[in-house]
Queue: 4 jobs
Job 1
Amino acid sequence: MDEKLDKKVARRDFLKASALAGAVLLGPGIPFITRRASAKEGVVKYGTMHPLTGPYSALGADQVNATRLAVEEWNAKGGILGRKIEWVHRDDQLNGAVALRRAKELLEEEKCDFIGGTLSGAISLAINEFACKNKTPYLAYCMSDMVLGADQCKYGFAFMMIPYSAALATSKYAFEKLGKKWFAITADYRWGHSLLEGWMWQSQQMGAQFLGNVYAPLGTTDFSTYFTKIMAAKPEVLVMNNLGADQTAAIKQLSELGLTKQMKIVCTKTAMATIKEVGAAYDENVMGGMSFYWGLKDKYPASKKFIEAYMKKFGQPVEQDGETGYVATNVILMAMQKANTVTDKEKIVAAMEGLNYTLTKGPESVRACDHQRVQSYVLVKGKGTKAKGWDLADIVAEIPGESIIMSCADNAKKLPFANIKLPK
Amino acid sequence: MISDIPLNVILMQLFFGLALGSIFVIMASGLSIIYGLLDVVNFAHGAFAMLGAYVVFCAVSLSGNFAVGIVSAIVIVALIGALVEVVLLKPLYGKDPLLPLLLTFGLAVAIPDVIKIAFGLIGKAVAYPAAFSGATKVGPLILSNYRMFIIVFTLAVLISLWIFLKKSDLGMIIRAATQDSLMVQVLGINTSRIWTIGFALGVGLAALAGAIAVPMMSATPDMGVEMTMGAFVVTVVGGLGSLGGAIVGGLLIGVIVAFTALVAGEYSNVAMYFCMAVILLIRPRGLFGESGRE
């Protein structure tokens, strides 16, 4: 009898304790159980972080898939310089503090030789700083300012666009073809602000007329409360400096009021996931930028080869975020091959600088001075009700990378954008 | 600052605020009924709203009719809610009050994951119902038809809910059970069933909120998180367990968010929490909260 009672209490205490533990763990997310690992002979180890939970989880999943594809392709060819590539990845939850912890785990526990990933400009800056201190190559998969000014680091490489490049590509097209009176909805964080700087500068250069901007907090679900201002301003071009669920909600609600018919909507960066989520309202009046769209397969043999390999493995086309990861992974392995070493980080970094390659689009390179991948930006417009399956958009232009990146000297000083005064 | 803004802009902003507030009201009413009746703080409220949005997506894809979508969302999610109450919540009554809270917290994490497995990570688009798409010019104002529908529809739902709770036998029993469930039991009424009905009604309302919100934002697995936060703020402002509080609190928060967006867009989210903090400081039980209740 007593024994039974004891057991019951103990079970209850256990339940409470485990419930509490569950709550504590779930707060910052369930960490992966880390295996005790050590630097193994005969292996090159790559560690990446992706936002697998939260608003960008669909894009994070693409990053994982594409990295996996690259690693498996190399391993199928026998690895790199006779060594197998071992790859581990973590969920950074789109949270800076979590991402830093994951980066630390990847270096200290998993003993990775180089790290990559992330899908937030702000997080990439933090990881870049961390990797720099640890003299470990870091390959950012997202748009990032880390190649500008004081954030430049010998070990940091950025494989998507600099945010201003995306803004320059879309704004030039918009001001030439769609109208010069513009208004912007900007996500209120670093990346959104950087895009707005690009638009403001281009606007000055091309004599466009800036009518106003609203900063919307990240995660805004109701944009209607901003529309009164926009309707009063009557812009020809309405710029979306946001992404994901925010962009989806904004475009859907603009269409609700018929505003997508009264002005052209230009998304500085958009995504296939967003076009799908918006549905029929993402029509020919809505335009967006992407660093990669699978429709490029009709233009470049390299795109076709890449898309076919990806579709075969994962059953759907890849987003720009995944494509970035594929290129980043390939480029560092190509650099190791070129440098003929997998251990000498200085030599690998030197081999990456100025590396020329053709992987997923036309010929590209990693610029030596600032470690930025110089690549084209694709502008697409929606197909509205004619969209079917993954045939979501028509390519309207491909802007060459060289035309949307500032000189080495300018990037080192964040010019000319450091002089732009953002609206309040 | 407001005085420089033309009257029509203020009226339009008020309109947008009331429409936004209407969704808050429906969410918070459900939360309030559940808390009032079962003393359960339903952390999974937004997850049920999200389920409502996905039911609408499925129903509209199959039938092409938005009304069918709304009705299916309420019915199906209410049934799921009843099942959850009977199978998962019921065994926890009378035990540590932390347990139901942890259960709903767990559901808030688990339900979106199930939806991710079933429907994928990319959200599902639901078009605006044809009857309410577009906008109507009313004098100097341009009013979205769909938002007018939301306001009128919410009003209709609240009136029906009020009549149900005040006039019907079942409604009276629910109110009595909210006051004193032991006494209701003594009178020979099966309170256990009343709890099930109350929970189903509450999450049914959440599903309704998700259903009417879905054309404006698309159904995504994580959409419930923001909705839960909004509902909690409204409930705290209006007073826990008070239906009138949910209504006044919801509309108040909607209008505050709308006017903050007009003058300082970047603070529109913060304004909601700021309002909650002020209310908590000057009237901790919320605008309509009963003083005895914590």
Note: The longest strand of chain A covers residues 43-50.
Job 2
Amino acid sequence: MSESGTHPPDGSQSGGQELNCEESLARVYEYLDGELDTGEHDAVRLHLEKCRRCYPHFDFERLFLDYVHELGSEQEARPGLKDRVLEMLEAETR
Amino acid sequence: MSVPAEQRRREFESEALVHLDALYGLALRLSGGDEPRAEDLVQEAVLKAYRAWDRFEVGTNCRAWLMTILRNTFINEFRRRKARPTPVEFEQVAERPSSEALYEADPEGRIFDHIIDDQVIAAIDGLPDEFRIAVVLSDLEGLSYQEVAELMEIPVGTVKSRLFRARKRLQAQLYDYAVEMGYLR
């Protein structure tokens, strides 16, 4: 496998199935977010299987997205909030 | 107070209030770290949920139901605020030259094992509203582009471009932090 084998796209692409580096990188987030339709997803995957330049970049972006996702948003509410919510519910029930 | 009303309240409290921290965390991130605003948002959402409690189907996902109510409450309030002129649009902020700097300096992403979460949270909180909301809904809450688009009433293409720019902005800030920490040079 040559490092630049798919960059730029050579004439061996069949039926426009495969994307070049630029086209693949433009779809990196849609690919990782699972937002591409099957055809496009496969086209990006096909490129990644061959391209030593794009594969690490995609890997890095995946690490980044996983990191942000794992931050999550859960955060301990200050105790005063629960008390106010309970008071509010009691007042609403009266 | 009638017995059924009291019973209903107790049922709501035991089913719903265990999710208070989750609601507060989402409210805090959506509002960019504004604690009083986040607390107001949680109270408003909980009150709406309580009033609609009869429509909640026991046995279904209570947390998801509450989070949806909170998201909708936030977005409605956000739209009301938006009627006023916004301060700085993201487009007006100069594009940073270093949007790929983090990848170039640390392609293996080792920084993600070292960075302090609070710094990243502060960076998310500091994103302009439209960009922060997209990141919170998509990256933290796991909503699809379509769900974010519907909630924010914007085209899916706009969701994509906001996520792209917001993520690159976050990476540029992570790069700056990493350099400050002496982890990258």
Note: Chain B has a mean pLDDT of 90.
Job 3
Amino acid sequence: MTESEKRKRFESVYLDYFQAIHDFCNSFLKDGELARDVAQDAFFALWNNFDPAYSEKEILSFLYTTGRNKCFDQLRLQKVVESKIKDLKDTIYSDTFFLDEVTRRETYRIVRESINKLPERSRQIALLALQGYSTQEIADELEVSINTVKTLKKNAYSKLREIINNQYVILILLKYFI
Amino acid sequence: MKQKIYERLDLGKQFAKRLTERDAVHDELDQQLEEDPDLKELYHDIAANLHTVDWKPTGRQEWLDFQKKYLFRRQRRRNLILRYAAVACVLVSAVVVWSLYFSRQEEPAVVMSAAGNLPTLSVNDQVFALDSGGIKRLLQQKHVVMQQTDKELVYLTDCGSSVVSEWHTIRVPRQAEFTLVLTDGSRVRLNTGTTLHYPVPFTGDTREVRVEGEAFFEVAPDKDKPFIVHFEDNSVTVLGTEFNISCYKEQPSHTTLVKGSVRLSNSLDAVVLLPGQEGIISSSRENITVREADINVVTAWLNNRFYFKELPLSEIMKALGEWYDVGVLFDNKSTGDMLFSIETKRYEDIDSVLTILESTKKVKFTRKDNMIQVKSNL
């Protein structure tokens, strides 16, 4: 594995995961710019330990864990001067918050990744539908008939499921919080 | 924990899939959600917040920014190294000659634990703390004649010619300084965190010493024996003069002439400085920059004072951090770029210095243990 191959692999990791890690950090920091810096720091930490042989899970686990630690570092510094996060404190330092955030950001990440693989029209409809628009609203928005929306939505959703299924081997769900 | 994260990564996939199956009944996951109300609530919360999500894929610009910020810097340096490979080769051989020349005294193996925050004097492989006890032990072993007062060590000029020359090294720790009078009568004041390496007595046609850190030299005139100060891969050659050298590790070196004249040289360039001028060397691969210096600023430390004049806060805090042995953290880069001027006594604790800076109402400091957090008030 040459340096340039390593960089290529890292680049695709960066493009695939950055938004998720950024949003994840923002849940802790409530500051988009700072979240971007911290997320970049997390990726730089990954780069310094990067082995292209790492599995997707290992990489994501590293990024979420590192991102969380770096957010805590930031919050520790802010704590003295700003008390705005004070009431959040107990919540965001818990493992439950962390694990729930990982779940949330992964869900959104996978939807994002899959949805961006759809043809443009299907993508638009799927996006609007996911965000809670009714069929009628989508039809008005895109200026197409209700039936077209229904068909396209059905197709888009089944394609999405296919993409998600093909991309990941879904493991048998383990029991949580036993 | 790792296992739990992995489970949640999988759960995210299940949730994503479930979101595209609004109406369908999904056996296992639905069962799971029914059994675990917390999980069910999480799923519904995720579903209810889909409209808050940025669905755009990460743009190339984001990746380019990251590369520029973290990865390119290193690569550019590597290119530079290639470009200067030839120069580097010459330099390496120069350094080899240098270190052979001075190798007898490098890095003594024995370090006296009692030395603590005292300056130390190393002779051959022995280290003596520069308190009266340490000097006594040295004098019992060696035939050099010297006198020591509180913060000054004087080698007497009349040491007999029978004495064999040997290399001595003085190390001044943080928050300390020390004055030395060499065997030729030249006086050297050593600032905090400085090492000076010199022979006792001087023999041969030149007087050569090596310094790292900051030192003010008042060189005793001797036309026949040039006084040469080596630092990094550069040198200053003088006859009789007063000048200051600041050459801390990983910082550009400043050689500032107060009186007389000196010749400053590195492997590429050589300049003669006039009184009031300073020569700056950022890297041994670059030419020397000469500019007018503010002597009061440069020599403030000789009067136990800090004097920063229109300097970025980051540089001021770096100097303060070095003296008071604290770390400094800025809330963001622009705070470190703000310019400040400050003149104050050096032996006060750092809090009084920070109070002065805070009185400008432009910055605020928060101190925790050995870290100082700097925050802009603007």
Note: Residues 74-115 of chain B have pLDDT under 50 and may be disordered.
Job 4
Amino acid sequence: MPDKDQALLKVTGLKRYFDVSQPFLNRLLERRKRQYLKAVNGVSFTIKQGETFALVGESGCGKSTIAHLVVGLFPPSAGKIEFDGIDLTTLNNRAQLRPVRRRMAMIFQDPYASLNPRWRVNNIISEPIKAFGLLNGRQAIVQRTSVLLEQVGLSPQDGAKFPHEFSGGQRQRISIARALAGEPEFIVCDEPTSALDVSVQAQILNLIKNLQKKFGLSYLFISHDLAVVRHIADHVGVMYMGRLCESAPVKALFENPRHPYTRLLLDTIPDIEKMGRECAPPQGEIPNPLNPPAGCAFHPRCPQTTDHCICNRPKLENMASDAKVACFQAF
Amino acid sequence: MHILRHVGWVKRSKTYQILMNGEFRFATPTLHLNTETCLSMLKIENLTIRFDTRYGPLTAVDNVTFEVRPGEVFGLVGESGAGKSLTGQAIIGLLDPPGYIAGGQISLEGVRIDNLAYNHLRALRGRKIGMIFQDPLTSLNPLYTIGKQLTETILTHTSVTTAEAQQQAIALLTDVGIPGAAERINQYPHQFSGGMRQRVVIALALCANPQLVIADEPTTALDVSIQAQILSLLKQMCREHGAAVILITHDMGVISQVAQRVAVMYSGRLVEIGDVRQIVKHPKHPYARGLMGSIPSLHHQVDQLTQIDGAMPRLTDIPPGCAFHPRCPECFDLCREKRPVLKKIANSHIACWLYAQEAHHAG
């Protein structure tokens, strides 16, 4: 087990480009160049042992791509992903990845799509145990699955049922039990509550938090909901157009948002405390990621744009109290 | 059968008159109106929606009563499966079979609209009641240009020439904030972004100047920054057109920013109706209280969110008495036996036995 303050996951200069070019013949005849979608374009962050790091942003900003890259669902185009000192990008066969993969797990967004409808819950949960050969013997596995089911607030009898017999919140509990089955240290949660109702969301968020305390888990928590992030995270990264525009401890980010995009997000969230207050909605839309604006990607929507922002792209720079901001106006 | 239908037609046409150009008018509008109906534009009384299934009838919406005043934004909030969308569909007559209205009545400006014939309903939809759906891509026809869809609606409901309709369509698109409306009118829905499409849908809902717009989760498919734009647009457009809005959503944040009055639904029943301020700040019904507590706040951090244990019951096994009692922390014997009805307490209406005494004393 690594030390408390040591970085469990260290991501440096992570990039992932998707080739979205026209077919070869079209390119030849229409004289088009190859076209790349820069989904993740140079992102660096570290997650400490036992910490929850949240990535927030609007749809299409690349946050889910990062989640997939970190667990190795597809390889990065460039950059390093170090998990407990091991660089995952240098491991290129399954046998080498296997011991590392056991130590991380993922909870997906849609509990209706992430569970095999033809498998019983027992089988779904025990699959990681069997795949990694953690336990031997039927009896031991059955026992372990019932313990897991109880840990996520279901009853051991539920194991004999099929996923369709459960509600959305219960299914997400099954996903969590499956994620815990491999006894991971690190769990990637990709919008685990966005398909759920608020009262169920509260149950799942409480469960995720309690499990963290119990097992000392570290989370990479992907969400578009800043209120959820405020509740669950220790450290937050705000993403826009494939880049981090602000990264700060949760308290600093919410009390003193430095990047104009973070401020925009905070202002526009309908919040019950801002009741009846008329606020001017932000202008503009998210630009097409296929041809992002020059300079700072946020400049077309930013209220404080200067000529400098249009020509130059700001780097993520260190600020006071562990915060990093990519904005020329923040200083 | 044909004769019966014919009789029905004659009977109804006493109250309604469909003009040749498709315009819908109330033939005798002042006859039924008393002061009460003037206050409420839409009145829903004891609305019950059932589904007949192999396992017997399921009651998806049970005895729902509320009214919408002219020009107000009325929020209908609840979790998925609470029956809020069904209520919206029933109002505009778009309830899909096997669902049907099993009881109660819906009246618009004092005239019943729940038992209208198909033709009459068609004249009413769009003209008197507009609708905005959740997913802007599926509510627009991908094979027609935006302009074609807008002018078609305008021509159906008003007596203008095609050229005038085109002009109106461009004006409307400009009003909803689409830049370069004159050129974009000839584009297809796929050429618009999600937020822009929802603006088109809002223009479409408002193009015949309806008195009531039902917005069913209008911003759920959109990002937060776009959501804020669409909500403020919806609010502004409805104010300009003098239309009342029924805003159906699961997001209390949206409701608190836009609505004036709110109804909270649980398991097909109304549990609390009242002023938005009252419900958000001081919810009375235990479910409403749990719902508010379970929303994570942006302003202060709590270690644990209030959670309501369990889940909403399935329609097949709604418990006797109060539907919320198995999850309610303050449940007592009466709750298990008898179903509470909506009682007026102070400024709001609450269906809970906890407050029954209070209501009794108040008279």
Note: Chain A has eleven helices and twelve strands.
